[in-house]
Design goal:
The chain is of the alpha+beta class and about 210 residues long. It has helices at about 10-20, 75-90, 100-105, 105-110, 130-135, 160-165, 175-180; strands at about 5, 30, 35, 40, 45-50, 50-55, 65, 95, 120, 140-145, 155, 180-185, 190-195, 200-209. The chain contains seven helices and 14 strands. It is elongated, with a radius of gyration of 20 Å.
């Protein structure tokens, strides 16, 4: 295992590195923001004894494992990362979670799948929130197009809620119209999960919360 995308300082990434090294592999870590389309990455991290070291020479790995792309990245950074992976993956013997699969981390692309997603809207301007709130009395969910672990997600039930987020710079007008989706809030007490393998749904689960 020679390539991992993630943060080398996160404990789960560090643990993965240690286990791979324990099995005799050389491991390096690349980060989303260091992607260069067509060239790979501007730098990589590796473990030297117990210290994280940095190398400015990216070398193509035998295996590229995309574990994570970060808790919050902007769309330009994420799209550049996906394009970079796509440009080098055919040169690597094995890629786990290739560029196309990773691109579905964008929530707007996820919603192109034939699955029962929550109704959503794309804002053209902030004032669109007014009409959406009138149609959705239960409130709205503001969700980053790119993001994991619920980072950046906000719930609004009134214009006052939105004004509070804007005034306190929790969210900006530019990011709201360009990097967010607005979903209808559905007060359901179930959680639905889907499992995909090579583009095919192989399992699903609906669980009571």
């Amino acid at each position: 295992l020679d390539g991992i995308s993630g943060n080398p300082l996160f404990w789960d990434t560090y643990r993965l590195i240690k286990n791979a090294i324990g099995r005799g592999h050389n491991v390096s870590v690349v980060q989303t923001e260091d992607a260069i389309e067509g060239e790979g990455f501007s730098k990589e991290f590796y473990l030297d004894k117990k210290n994280i070291e940095i190398s400015s020479n990216f070398t193509l790995p035998d295996v590229l494992f995309i574990r994570s792309y970060g808790l919050r990245v902007n769309l330009e950074c994420f799209d550049n990362f996906v394009a970079s992976v796509k440009s080098i993956e055919n040169k690597i013997p094995l890629t786990i979670n290739n560029g196309e699969a990773t691109s579905f981390s964008r929530k707007d692309k996820q919603k192109t799948l034939d699955l029962p997603f929550t109704p959503y809207y794309k804002l053209n301007q902030i004032s669109d929130i007014n009409s959406l709130l009138k149609k959705n009395k239960e409130g709205l969910i503001l969700k980053p197009v790119c993001g994991i672990q619920s980072k950046g997600i906000e719930y609004v039930k009134s214009i006052g809620d939105l004004e509070f987020l804007l005034e306190n710079e929790v969210i900006s007008e530019n990011s709201l119209t360009n990097e967010y989706l607005v979903e209808k809030f559905i007060p359901e007490k179930v959680e639905t999960r889907y499992v995909f393998l090579f583009g095919e749904m192989i399992g699903s689960r609906i669980a009571e919360k």
